[in-house]
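User: Please fill in residues for this 435-position structure.
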């Protein structure tokens, strides 16, 4: 063997030995890798953007602001946070693609995300043991999968809460909702709240998810409340007023614009209402503030009103770390949900030992076993142990059934007078299975 061959052989042997040793002790930071201080923890946040239906850009924008903020402080217990974002496109294929990207990047969790296509994203995540922390709550799988850790009660508690709110004031209710699988459960959940207040079931009015013409649903909703409206002159029967609630995401504004015109033609003014996410402070501001057509509207929310001091830490992070990103609105329910979800992630990571390896399955195990996690008063303390699950048909993973009741007054969403926050879980436990 010539000298250069001997040298090449020794070089390759040395390189292989060095690489083996490096792999054994973990040289450098591997994307999605874990371990002690200095390592990088990869997570993902996905939400739909630029679609013809619901868009939630504030969620991914909030996730990136949180990443910049926490890394400016040295990370979480010395571990740098790497946040991946993904456009879910409001399609099953888009949701599945985001889940696969989380898997390929070795994410330890999907955090603070939005998708109504739960079947598409949960199955891939479950196969790899990746926990789904703090979804927005629009798919039933978020309240069924053992790897889902919701921070709010999602659409189920909002709709049950809306039923409670309207059942105390309305003689007849119409609900306008998307003609989708996720929308099919909405009337059942709303009716649970109405029934608890001895109010009749709501009229169910479907609308195509991506339609721009709501004139027909508007006329139908107006007609369905006409019987109750005729009795409004009787001041001793306040509960006889007709009420219309719409849960259409970004399309809610378009619907109520058509409804306002239809009501004006008939010289009628039924009570209108919606839920967090379909109506927001930003929408009220954009449509006229005090002169907004939403003035006087009822709203059911998961969280305290947006001007509550409890949101100050989030507002500070947004103001200091969302530079150049107009997608973050502190009044946006998506951004608020993402903030709470990342708060949970931070608290969970802090419960690992400094030198402990952190993987997706270990994060899920920690969530399953941990004592209650505090979210700065924005939600009740959260825990997903077996004993914390509630007997809600179709939604066993609900651990936080809290809602707040709000009303638009002088252009601001404020707490509805005389209505305290309420746990809707007992109401949902009595409801028929909706998913």
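Assistant: Residues filled in for all 435 positions:
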């Amino acid at each position: 063997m010539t000298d250069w061959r001997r040298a090449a052989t020794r070089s390759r042997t040395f390189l292989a030995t060095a690489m083996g040793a490096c792999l054994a002790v973990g040289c450098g930071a591997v994307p999605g890798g874990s371990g002690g201080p200095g390592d990088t923890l990869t997570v993902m946040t996905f939400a739909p953007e630029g679609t013809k239906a619901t868009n939630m850009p504030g969620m991914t924008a909030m996730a990136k602001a949180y990443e910049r903020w926490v890394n400016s402080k040295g990370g979480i217990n010395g571990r740098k946070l790497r946040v991946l974002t993904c456009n879910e496109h409001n399609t099953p294929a888009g949701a599945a693609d985001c889940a696969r990207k989380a898997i390929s990047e070795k994410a330890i969790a999907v955090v603070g995300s939005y998708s109504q296509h739960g079947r598409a994203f949960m199955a891939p995540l479950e196969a790899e043991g990746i926990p789904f922390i703090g979804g927005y709550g629009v798919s039933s799988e978020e309240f069924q999968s053992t790897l889902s850790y919701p921070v709010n009660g999602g659409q189920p508690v909002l709709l049950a809460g809306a039923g409670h709110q309207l059942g105390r004031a309305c003689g007849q209710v119409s609900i306008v909702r998307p003609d989708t699988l996720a929308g099919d459960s909405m009337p059942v959940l709303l009716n649970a709240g109405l029934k608890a207040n001895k109010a009749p079931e709501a009229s169910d009015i479907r609308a195509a998810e991506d339609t721009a013409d709501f004139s027909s649903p508007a006329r139908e909703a107006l007609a369905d409340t006409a019987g109750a409206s005729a009795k409004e002159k009787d001041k001793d029967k306040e509960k006889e007023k007709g009420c219309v609630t719409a849960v259409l995401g970004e399309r809610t504004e378009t619907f109520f614009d058509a409804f306002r015109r239809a009501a004006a033609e008939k010289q009628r003014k039924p009570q209108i209402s919606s839920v967090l996410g379909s109506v927001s402070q930003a929408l009220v501001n954009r449509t006229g503030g005090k002169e907004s057509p939403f003035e006087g509207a009822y709203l059911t929310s998961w969280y305290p009103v947006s001007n509550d001091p409890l949101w100050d830490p989030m507002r500070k992070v947004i103001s200091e770390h969302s530079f150049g990103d107009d997608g973050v609105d502190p009044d946006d329910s998506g951004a608020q949900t993402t903030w709470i979800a990342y708060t949970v992630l931070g608290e969970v990571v802090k419960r690992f030992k400094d030198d402990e390896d952190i993987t997706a399955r270990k994060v899920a195990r920690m969530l399953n076993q941990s004592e209650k996690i505090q979210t700065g008063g924005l939600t009740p303390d959260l825990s997903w142990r077996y004993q914390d699950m509630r007997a809600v048909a179709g939604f066993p993973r609900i651990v936080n059934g809290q809602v707040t009741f709000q009303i638009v007054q002088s252009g601001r969403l404020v707490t509805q007078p005389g209505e305290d926050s309420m746990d809707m879980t007992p109401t949902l436990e009595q409801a028929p299975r909706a998913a």
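For context: Residues 26 and 35 are 9 Å apart (CA to CA).
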